[in-house]
Specification:
Length: about 375
């Protein structure tokens, strides 16, 4: 009995150990799935996917049947549409034929106002998009010419050789014609130059004769004008001398040069004078003016003395006010210095308290620093 009990206990212990091992394996597998971001993000359920595939096949079969039914209906509708289109084309063809006949008979293109806009030969008359490989309009964005293309190389080379030969022959002909034309023009130029020189000499001879005649007539006219001008100046000079003598005699005998003081007296009173005849003031008037000027000088000296005394009083008051302001500023500076000393003492006490508090927090409050072992206990299971 004891042996059976021991065997049962061993079996139970083995079952418990196996169960624990299975749980441990499942936990490890679960952790590998849960902690693997790739599997956790794109992992799928196969059974659900199979059910979805089955539903999708059923839907596709139903959709296929519906599409076949719709295809049959489309075929029938297409046949009807083809018949209607044929009928419509027949009607439109008849209408267009009637319109074309009417336009051909009664609306000719050249009679239209906008014929140049609807000219059927406009595209034929217009320049093509690419005339040649060297067309300046064939830009990169035009997509008319690509690198390595040369559409008419052989024809171009043949044409260039023929063109070069024609050019050489044409240049020879042009050179011969140019030499002949140059010789003809040189001969014609020499003849024209000789004829022009002859006409120029004749015209110059005629002009010289005319110029001599004009100069002779002008000289005679100038001679007569000079004699007349000399006689007129002589008479004017004589008359001017006579007038000057009369004026000098009148001035010498007049009141202006004789400086008669009565001539400056105005007809409006003895106190007023005629400015253009006045010769100056007398001694009494000059003495009165000098006396007035002396009084003005004394008055100006008195005013300057009063102004000097007033400025001295202002300077004294300004010095006293500046001295009082200096005393007040020194008193304010002394009070400000005392306040700064008191504030510095308070700040020193506060700084000492702050240092003591920081030392206490660093050594007492924040002494337990978390280690890596503390963080390793998190996120160890999948539950």
């Amino acid at each position: 009995m004891s042996g059976l009990g021991l065997g049962r206990e061993a079996q139970e212990a083995a079952a418990v150990a196996a169960a624990l091992e299975r749980r441990r394996q499942r936990e490890l597998q679960r952790q590998s799935r849960v902690f693997n971001a790739w599997l956790r993000t794109i992992g799928v359920d196969k059974d659900a996917l199979d059910a979805q595939v089955k539903d999708r096949k059923i839907q596709e079969a139903a959709k296929k049947a519906r599409n076949e039914e719709l295809a049959n209906e489309f075929k029938q509708n297409d046949k009807i549409m083809c018949m209607l289109e044929e009928r419509q084309k027949y009607v439109i063809r008849n209408i267009n034929k009637a319109v074309s006949d009417f336009q051909k008979n009664f609306q000719k293109p050249e009679t239209r106002r906008e014929f140049d806009l609807s000219d059927p030969q406009a595209l034929k008359k217009d320049r093509p998009a690419r005339l040649s490989d060297n067309d300046p309009r064939c830009t990169v964005s035009g997509l008319q010419k690509f690198m390595g293309e040369d559409l008419n190389y052989s024809l171009r080379m043949k044409f260039q050789k023929e063109q070069l030969r024609e050019w050489s022959l044409q240049q020879q002909r042009d050179w011969k014609n140019a030499l002949a034309d140059k010789k003809f023009l040189d001969d014609l130029h020499d003849k024209n130059r000789i004829e022009l020189d002859r006409k120029t000499m004749e015209q110059q001879r005629t002009e010289e004769e005319t110029h001599r005649a004009v100069c002779s007539a002008t000289k005679e006219f100038n001679r007569s004008q000079a004699a007349e001008l000399a006689e007129r100046k002589k008479l004017e000079k004589h008359q001017k001398m006579k007038d000057d003598m009369d004026e000098i005699s009148s001035l010498l005998q007049g009141d202006l040069l004789s400086e008669n003081p009565e001539q400056a007296t105005s007809s409006f009173g003895r106190h007023r004078v005629i400015t253009d005849r006045w010769k100056g003031m007398n001694q009494d008037q000059l003495m009165a003016i000098r006396s007035s000027q002396q009084q003005q000088v004394l008055e100006k000296l008195r005013l300057k003395e009063e102004e000097r005394r007033r400025d001295a009083e202002w300077d004294r008051q300004s010095i006293q006010a500046a001295r009082a302001q200096l005393i007040l500023e020194r008193h304010q500076q002394r009070q400000s210095w005392e306040r700064c000393r008191a504030l510095d003492s308070i700040n020193a006490e506060l700084s000492q308290e702050q240092k003591s508090k920081n030392i206490y927090l660093k050594e007492e409050e924040y002494s337990n620093v978390p280690t890596s072992q503390y963080f390793a206990q998190f996120n160890t299971t999948s539950r």
